[in-house]
Amino acid sequence: LEFQRTVAEEIVPLRIYHFQEKIRAVAFVPTKGSQGAVLRFAVATAHNVVDVYDCPVTGRADEDDAEDGKANANALALGDLKHRLSINSLTHEADVRAMSFTSNNMALVTQSADSIKAWGTRNKAVLRDEDDAALADAFEAEKREAVALPPDSKLLRCTGTLSKIAAPADLVGGFVMLPGDHTVVAGTSDGKLLIISLQSSEVIETIEAHPPLGVTSIALMADGASVITAGKDRRLLKWDVTLVDRKPLGGAAAADDDEDGNVTAPPPGAAKVASLMLAEEVELTDVPLVARVTPNDKLIGVAMQDHNVQLLHADTMRPFLTLFGHKLPATAIAFSADSTLCATVGMDKSLRFWGLDYGDCHKAIHAHDDYITDVKFVSDSHYVVTASMDGSVKHWDGDTWTLIQTMRVHQRGVWAVAINADGTFVATAGVDKCIRTFMRSEQLIYPDEEAEREAQEAMDEAAIRDAAKQKLDDLSAGADVAVGGHKTVATADAGEALMEALDVVSIEVQRLNDGAVGQPHASLRGVNVWTFLWNTIMSIRPSELRHALSSLTAVHVTSLLLFLKECIVNGAVTSFEVAGRVLLAAVKPAPGSNTAPTLVMGDDVDALRMLDELQGLIAKGLQAERDRLGRNAAGLAFVQRSIAKHERVMFHDVSKVQGAKKKFHSTKLESLAEQKK
Fold first, then answer.
1. Could you tell me which of 74, 69, 78, 61 has the C-alpha nearest to residue 17?
2. Do 398 and 375 contact (CB within 8 A), yes or no?
3. Do 305 and 287 touch, CB atoms closer than 8 A?
4. Using CA atoms, how far apart are residues 60 and 225, in angstroms rounded to an integer?
5. Three-state SS annotation for 114-156
6. Which of 179, 246, 401, 497 could form a disulfide with 224 if both were Cys (CB 3.0 to 4.6 A apart)?
7. Selection from 74, 80, 23, 19 nearest residue 54 by Cα
8. Do residues 498 and 564 touch, judged by C-beta distance below 8 A?
């Protein structure tokens, strides 16, 4: 007999290694060639970095076996780890919270708490030609070029990085790109503004804006001449963009003081760089969370921590309207290109459309199953795209308030969404630290079909949840506790088990017809195929048999009746009563159903012939069981008469006692006997 080992004997801990970062996944790496006794594996950490290690493996002799002169070949010893290489692919270590395309669509800039990165894209510059035909031709050429690219070239290429080495505080509040797409203004958690050069990936200037609490949001005026910043100090600041002298990156001397302390003029090679100069300041009633500017530079929208959205005049910074409606703080604001529509999303999972003339709420939509993180308008339209922590990105029509499309491409939540200038390219960033891009296609989408699909998916998810809950309730309350005659999780499981058994029998019958080529199924080892099928049928409770069979497909119902005949012919059937119930359940509709199962046969004549043969076999079997029961009853009566005659014992029919049932337990019989005494 083969010795069966337990899991504790097979799996033995050899050594524990500790890492500085949190581990997300581990995978073994196959080695090529003669690497010796080396175990190589890759470790993925929470900072989006994969480290590859080599671990030497040596054998050792077990002390107990060494005394007997035997060596245990399964005993191993692991040495110290040796770092081989790191793979980071220039990705973000933290979640990307903000992203935006450059005005010429040639780059995508992303921001996380640890860095700001610029990614090169395959998008061409925005066409200035207003001819629709030229736009269509350019879009088609760009789409053909993107589809023809090999898979590796479709990835975004990191062209520049500003890490936390240059910015010691966390980068928060988003960023804006100044005109020319060469300079970025970003905020930090300690209230500073960083002016960053994308060309050199360095901080040009640091400005104290909202110390020490931090910057919450940054917005750029449409004319590019001013920047709006909001901070946790309840202030809203307006900065004018100016150009100042700066020494060139090549190292030439900039403007400096001479020996007498006089400021000398900058050398001829000095470069002009962007800077910010404070223009206006407004004290708000609560902490501002998000600030955005309308495309016509007339209004500034500020989402407050008190759940309201306040609109201010951009020129005077005075209040204009207050939008009431969100039950939780708003997380993002967007304005349409014509500055007539405002879209806000919040932690209350709602998407709201507002009119900017009177501040009226056009529509409030429960858009996602979790709080919404971002919203963007598609250029020159009233279409909006929302991102949520439920992992979905949705496309909406702001005029009809209907859902156009739902995209689920991230494993977890989505933090940010960006749309390029011509609306043909969309990028999203998720909690899974992935940046995914979408390109507009010419495929037509029908909102009604999308709504039906969403409803069907919701119903399926609800059915799965209800089934899981019902299964847990059945396990906690006991397997015998169920409503008889109703379709439950147990009947669905019984139907699936029966369909699997029918599939196994079909494969085995085909194998036998082919000359018994190959090995039988593992479930059929040591048991006859027809006995296996009948045991599966007998494992179904009589109260669940009707509904279990109602869940079978037409092909499985036909196979069941065909194989039931073979079970009867081969003597595998032990109860013809159950066989009769199977036949009735297969041809009659279940309670609460109006349709009976459909038989997949050659024609109706074959189906009727098969049913007639089954009826005859089952009737013959029932008659044999009836005769057997009659013989048993006659034998018991003969034994009763013999005992009463020779031992002078009187027998009484307990079933005829008033108030007694036909079926008794031993305790019931004892109580009746005591009452009779």
1. 78
2. no
3. yes
4. 74
5. CCEEEEECCCCCCCCCCCHHHHHHHHHHHHHHHHHCCHHHHCC
6. 179
7. 80
8. no
Q: Give the phi and the psi of residue 124 in degrees, each rounded to 5.
A: -85, 170
- Three-state secondary-structure class, residue 412: coil
| Predicted pLDDT at 324 | 92
User: Tens digit of pLDDT for each residue in 544-599?
Assistant: 787 788 777 777 888 888 888 888 888 888 888 888 888 887 776 555 554 555 45
Q: What is the C-alpha separation between 268 and 254, in angstroms, rounded?
A: 9
CB 247 within 8 A of CB 205: no
Q: What is the CA radius of gyration of the chain?
A: 39
CA 40 centroid distance within chain? 31
Spatial neighbors of 629 by CB under 8 A, at least 6 apart, are: none
Give the least confident one: 219-223, 642-646, 670-674: 670-674
Q: pLDDT band for 4, please (50, 70, 90 cuts).
A: low
333: enclosing H helix or E strand? strand 330-335
Provide the angle, in degrees to the nearest 10, between the axes of the packed helices 554-569 and 576-587.
Answer: 160
**Which residue type is seen at 353?**
F
HSE-CB of 543 using CA atoms within 13 angstroms: 11
Question: Which residues are CB-contacts of 91 (< 8 A; sequence separation ≥ 6)?
Answer: 48, 158, 433
End-to-end Cα separation, the chain, in angstroms: 60
Q: What are phi and psi of 313, to 5 degrees?
A: -70, 130
pLDDT band at residue 296 using 50, 70 and 90 as cut-offs: very high
Q: What is the pTM of this model?
A: 0.58
Whether the pLDDT of residue 230 is over 80: the answer is yes
Distance between CA atoms of 490 and 154, rounded to whole angstroms? 49
How far is Cα 393 from Cα 312, in angstroms, rounded to an integer? 30
Flag the least confident range among 99-103, 134-138, 361-365, 366-370: 134-138
Number of Cβ within a 10 Å radius of residue 127: 14
pLDDT average, residue stretch 224-251 = 83
**Taking Cα atoms as reference points, which of 285, 289, 295 lies closest to residue 326?**
289
Closest by alpha carbon to 237, among 159, 148, 173?
173
Please tell me whether residue 461 adopts helix, strand or coil conformation. helix
**Is the pLDDT assigned to residue 35 strictly greater than 70?**
no
Residue of 383 and 254 predicted with greater confidence: 383
Question: Count of CB atoms within 10 A of residue 673's CB?
Answer: 11
Lowest mean pLDDT among 37-41, 258-262, 385-389, 506-510: 258-262
pLDDT of 190 strictly over 50: yes
Element spanning 359, H or E: none
Q: What is the DSSP string of 286-311?
A: S-EEEEEE-TTSSEEEEEETTS-EEE
Cβ count within 10 A of residue 348: 19
Token pair of 526, please? 């040591």
Beta bridge partners of 363: 353
How confident is the model over 491-517, as a mean pLDDT?
Answer: 82
85 CB burial (10 A radius; 0-12, 13-18, 19+): exposed
Structure tokens at 324: 């009431």
Decide: 150 and 133 in contact? Cβ < 8 Å.
Answer: no
Confidence of residue 152 (pLDDT cuts 50, 70, 90): very low
